[in-house]
Amino acid sequence: MISLSVIIPTYNPDAERFNKTLNGLKEQTLSFNHWELIVVDNNSSSGFSSQVDIAWQPNSNIVHEPKQGLTFARLKGFAEARGAIIVIVDDDNILAADYLEQVLHIFNKESKLGAVGGKSIPLFETAPPEWLSTFYSNLALRDLGDEVIMEGWSNKYPQSAPIGAGMALRKTALKTYMDKALVGKVKTTDRTALSLSSGGDNDMVIEVLKAGWLVAYHPALTLQHVIPAKRMETGYMAQLVNNTNRSWVQVLDSHGINPWNKIARWTVPLRKIKAWFTYKAWKNKVNFIRWQGACGTFEGLADSL
């Protein structure tokens, strides 16, 4: 019986990193009979399917989602999933060997739990610059310690809410999010080939909370997140922080919990110039990236007007 569905949305993945992700799943302590693997190909180049070996998992399938964007790929996976529990795995995540077994244990123990995540530990392909740790959260890296944290809806976003990498969800808790998607009310499409925006994880978590479920951070869940050299470059990080800040404002606004005042579009260039000096963006890489983040926030606040 399939109890759990692992969904990997992917677009032209790096072959070496993707194989590490698959090898991590191959080594899971949970019997293959109890879970399935769904790889969602989101418009990758031709020949992708023939390059992916998932035959080792008898309950596996590669499905295609022609609409570009991580949100669409995830929704495709959700629709295909047979398990009562869904685990989202990025194509650069390596789950600890007991990850899936721990997920089932946690959900069986906590009947009101809708979504849970754990530790996302960096696996750097090259030595990281010292300043990078300032932006770990933007890279979906986190470690909140060794205590379980569980929260419900309090009209604000919980600091312990699960991140997309390795997020496990009860499929019934996803109903309102999927219903919203069916009528075209899911506004964020997350990352695409041209954008580093995010927000889909947050949107899902808020819908789960609003539906009356709890969310949790659980230290028993650990994964490694592979960080290649490109993602440690200043230009990449500046675009990432800019795009994620912009989409973060948009998600909060869509749920009526945006704490900042909206701004007129014409004021954005002036605010960016002022922020350049406020953040002293010329001084170092951290300041420059933070300035880019402020620019993304201004754009998000203007978009929401």
TrEMBL record:
Record-linked CDD domains: Glyco_tranf_GTA_type (cd00761)
Q: Which Gene3D superfamilies match?
A: Spore Coat Polysaccharide Biosynthesis Protein SpsA, Chain A
Top-rank lineage group of the source organism: Bacteria
Q: Where is the Glycosyltransferase 2-like domain?
A: 5-119
List the residue ranges forming a coiled coil, or say none.
Answer: none
InterPro entries, alphabetically? Glyco_trans_2-like (IPR001173), Glycosyltransf_2 (IPR050834), Nucleotide-diphossugar_trans (IPR029044)
Q: What is this protein called?
A: Glycosyltransferase involved in cell wall biosynthesis
Which source organism? Mucilaginibacter pocheonensis
